[in-house]
Design brief:
Length: 184
Amino acid sequence: MEKTFVRAALLAVALLAATAGLGLWMGDLHDSADLVAQRWGTVHRLSGMLAALVVLLVNSISMTYFIGTGRWCREVVETYGLDAALIDRSKQLKRGAFPFAVIGMLSMVGIVALGGAADPGGGFAAGSRAWASWHLIGGIGLAAVIAWCFQAQVPALRGQHDLIGDVMNEVHRERAARGLEIGA
């Protein structure tokens, strides 16, 4: 899971960087006569939506992994009567990762909101030029927060993977003690 998460997170950060590059390169969207800038503005918005969806997806994958494996851990520990500390360990790992996933998602919402405010075609048309600087600064800063949140989730994912291995070792030990067949 760790490799999959890291690859997906790198894709999300690359999409954020590419979208930022487009935003810096495209020109002034407030100049309605510049049709080339307007076209590139559309590309920037579309790439921003793609980046937002991928950021949300990556954080959702992390959250779903912890929810699913945490439930699995609880069921296995209860079924085999294993040490309840394994469940507590799973909860701690989940609690360590969830805040970073939520912060990463909310940071993406912040970038999108600032982008919407900066869009001359949006509801803030009269003041959108002033929001463009906030979108630039906030977008770069919040993209860094998102990247930091991704890397902060990796140790918890690694720990959860190790926990699953420990639970399986305990299951094998318990099955052997009960004289039951031990699967591969």
